[in-house]
């Protein structure tokens, strides 16, 4: 951690580099190839249509090509009353035969009635038959046997498809729940039942339908207003650019106005507390202490006491004194921080292309997320159909055991449990591949985290290289190399893939542990073991802190890699000690930067948000005719506000990287050089003036 010796040949980012952390680079490439192989294997075994389309009792999904279900895309439940709620229907299997049909039934009918009249009303029989098992056409079979073997449903109900499944067609008439204008129906087993039984069977469907109609309205709003949303985001982009360019003139003014504003407000607070304290003098009861009156739920009681106002005044005086002392002792550091912010604005002015680099990071991360999501879906659907015995009798000992539909009819089960069937349960499997699907999903998540962190690291290193080449240019802008961003990107990829992958790997491991801890916490939510919950909470907190610390170290290590081209560990160590030697400057710069950039984000998002609000609520007379008619005006409004904040965040993240890079370069500059002709400073004249160095080299532009 000793200050670095002067190197007379050092002229900014080293160009004669060598590859760093080669072993990690090789491992990274092998892991990526393995990840591609995992994707291919999952793609071969998986079939996302199993998620999209429902599966019938024979393990074939509705709409499956080259099967009887080719044109039958909707799932029909023989007895929906056995399904207590749609959650059971969507996630698990309902204990009733399921069949794929081309369209849902549109009338009430029972098997008993249809069978009794099949001779003189064959059309009704033919209509009902399409909801029976394929190939069943035996109206002479006794009703008891048909219902036992579940050849046909005992009843059909007017239904409509929802999530590719037939659900009763509910409607409310004068506050009474009906299906096809009827409140009762025959259940096909000799009973007349109320429609509310169906409602319980398909509980919550109306809520889901309402949610779907809201979803459609929101989609319509987006379809109408996307053009204006894009204009809003473009305005946010221009405002962000303007804010960054103007920071070189306004950084100091903004900061000092805010600081003196805070001092003024606290000063007024002190005066007000004193006035209240003095005003209560002599009023009966005001000299009581807080201890005397004890705990009161009405806070106003305390405001009647002189002691309360005295306490407020002392607290505010303490805060005021601390702020003023900090300003007095840290004034030079604050001036350096503001000068660095202005320098950052100037650097971005010379290398404008850097502002659009976040788009590259965004695209890389979007590719990672897409690949991860697709692989996860294919892995989740890569099982073979598993069949289980489904018995009508509750006491059947074979119920829920796995079975083979090919040989099921030759086994004892049908004799011991009349009416039992071998129906599809879920997708799984016993092979080696299927047993390790959970491990594959974990590996998928881990490599995804590694790649995302690598994409972010690549962006940080590229930007750091570009801004370092600006700082170490002796005459600015004449000595700034051509295409600084592209050459920095090339250097990062060619020489430092291993180092960036190493940094990303450490972060990915910590993040994976955090994901596992969150999963465990979610699983243990129901348990009453407070010690376990406390331990998990501590672990989550520790790993959160560790992740924050690692992100800070990595970010500065990547800056050092961009400047010197050394390996990850050396760069991280040098960056850490350099920052520790300038710890107060780091703290001040960090807080000043955070404050100004937060102010910028609020200004951009707030400004565009107010403008969008006035526009979408037709408060701007010039554009009143242009405003689209919306179901909910908050849809485009929220999109514009959140989008503007993200656009501003994208631009300002580049600026924050710029300031961090310039700061590390500035610290290096101070340790390497002394401002003499032999060892001139590379910093700008404004930074030089703040340091009060007398030996000003004959440069300065």
Description of the molecule:
- This protein has helices at 22-45, 49-52, 86-91, 111-116, 122-129, 143-148, 195-201, 205-279, 290-293, 306-329, 331-350, 357-380, 413-416, 432-435, 437-471, 484-523, 530-564, 568-581, 583-616, 634-672, 685-691; strands at 74-77, 98-101, 109-110, 155-156, 159-162, 165-168, 170-173, 176-179, 184-186, 192-194, 384-390, 402-403, 421-428.
- It is mostly helical and 701 residues long.
- Among the domains are: 74-190, no CATH class; 384-428, no CATH class.
- The strands form six sheets. The protein has a three-stranded antiparallel beta sheet with strand order 12-11-13, with no helix packed on it.
- α8 packs across α20 and α19 runs antiparallel to α20.
- Mean pLDDT is 82; it is low at 85-92 and 693-701.
Features:
mainly alpha, 3-stranded antiparallel β-sheet, 21 helices, two-stranded antiparallel sheet, 701 residues, disordered C terminus, extended
């Amino acid at each position: 951690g000793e200050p670095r010796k002067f190197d007379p040949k050092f002229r900014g980012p080293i160009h004669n580099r060598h590859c760093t952390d080669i072993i990690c680079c090789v491992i990274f490439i092998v892991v990526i190839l393995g990840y591609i192989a995992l994707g291919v294997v999952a793609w071969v075994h998986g079939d996302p249509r199993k998620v999209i389309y429902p599966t019938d009792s024979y393990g074939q999904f509705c709409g499956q090509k080259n099967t009887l279900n080719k044109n039958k895309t909707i799932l029909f439940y023989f007895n929906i009353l056995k399904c207590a709620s749609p959650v059971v229907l969507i996630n698990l299997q309902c204990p009733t035969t399921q069949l794929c049909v081309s369209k849902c039934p549109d009338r009430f009918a029972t098997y008993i009635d249809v069978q009794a009249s099949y001779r003189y009303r064959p059309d009704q029989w033919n209509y009902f038959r399409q909801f029976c098992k394929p190939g069943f056409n035996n109206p002479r079979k006794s009703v008891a046997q048909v219902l036992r073997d579940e050849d046909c449903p005992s009843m059909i109900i007017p239904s409509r498809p929802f999530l590719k499944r037939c659900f009763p067609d509910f409607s409310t008439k004068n506050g009474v729940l009906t299906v096809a204008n009827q409140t009762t129906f025959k259940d096909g087993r000799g009973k007349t039942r109320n429609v509310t039984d169906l409602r319980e069977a398909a509980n919550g469907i109306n809520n889901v339908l309402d949610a779907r109609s809201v979803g459609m309205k929101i989609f319509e709003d987006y379809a109408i207003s996307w053009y204006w949303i894009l204009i809003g985001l473009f305005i946010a982009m221009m405002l962000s650019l303007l804010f960054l360019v103007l920071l070189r003139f306004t950084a100091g003014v903004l900061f000092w106005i805010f600081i003196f504003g805070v001092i003024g407000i606290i000063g007024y607070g002190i005066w007000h507390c004193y006035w209240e304290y003095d005003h209560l003098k002599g009023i009966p009861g005001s000299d009581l202490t807080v201890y005397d009156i004890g705990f009161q739920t009405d806070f106003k009681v305390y405001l009647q006491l002189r002691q309360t106002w005295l306490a407020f005044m002392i607290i505010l005086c303490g805060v005021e004194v601390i702020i003023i002392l900090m300003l007095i002792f840290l004034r030079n550091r604050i001036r350096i921080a503001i000068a660095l912010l202005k320098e950052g604005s100037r650097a971005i002015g010379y290398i404008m292309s850097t502002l659009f680099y976040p788009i590259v990071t965004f695209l890389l991360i979007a590719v990672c997320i897409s690949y991860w999501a697709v692989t996860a879906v294919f892995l989740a659907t890569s099982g073979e159909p598993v069949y289980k015995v489904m018995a009508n009798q509750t006491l059947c000992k074979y119920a829920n055991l796995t079975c083979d539909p090919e040989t099921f009819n030759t086994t004892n089960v049908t004799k011991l449990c009349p009416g039992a069937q071998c129906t599809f349960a879920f997708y799984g499997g016993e092979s080696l591949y299927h047993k390790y699907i959970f491990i594959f999903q974990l590996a998928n998540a881990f490599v995804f985290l590694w790649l995302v962190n690598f994409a972010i690291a690549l962006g940080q290193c590229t930007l750091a290289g570009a801004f370092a080449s600006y700082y170490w240019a002796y005459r600015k802008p004449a000595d700034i190399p051509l295409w600084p961003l592209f050459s920095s990107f090339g250097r990062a990829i060619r020489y430092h893939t291993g180092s960036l992958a190493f940094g990303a790997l450490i972060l990915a491991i910590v993040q994976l542990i955090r994901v596992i801890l969150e999963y465990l916490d979610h699983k243990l939510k129901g348990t009453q073991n407070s010690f376990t919950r406390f331990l998990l909470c501590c672990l989550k907190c520790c790993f959160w802190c560790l992740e924050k610390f690692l992100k800070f170290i990595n970010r500065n290590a990547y800056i050092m890699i961009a400047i010197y081209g050394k390996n990850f560990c050396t760069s991280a160590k040098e960056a850490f000690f350099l920052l520790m030697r300038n710890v107060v400057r780091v703290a001040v710069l960090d807080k000043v930067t955070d404050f100004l950039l937060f102010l910028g984000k609020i200004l951009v998002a707030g400004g565009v948000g107010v403008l969008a609000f006035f526009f979408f609520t037709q408060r701007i007379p010039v554009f009143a005719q242009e405003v689209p008619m919306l179901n909910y005006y908050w849809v485009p409004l929220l999109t514009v506000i959140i989008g503007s904040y993200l656009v501003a965040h994208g631009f300002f993240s580049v600026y924050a990287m710029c300031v961090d890079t310039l700061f590390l370069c500035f610290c290096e500059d101070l340790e390497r050089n002394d401002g003499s002709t032999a060892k001139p400073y590379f910093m700008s004249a404004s930074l030089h003036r703040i340091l009060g160095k007398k030996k000003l080299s004959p440069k300065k532009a």
